[in-house]
Amino acid sequence: MVLAGRPLQEPIAHYGPFVMNTVGEIEQALLDYQEGRMGHLP
Questions:
Q1: Who has greater pLDDT, 40 or 34?
Q2: Residue 2 belongs to a domain
């Protein structure tokens, strides 16, 4: 997939499939994933 647009001029942190603005947000996403709070399929 190729996307184009104006840069948002915001910081980017990434780890595996997670892309957030800060390392703290990445850590929270990993914790949410590990604890099963990322949603469920029926």
A1: 34
A2: no
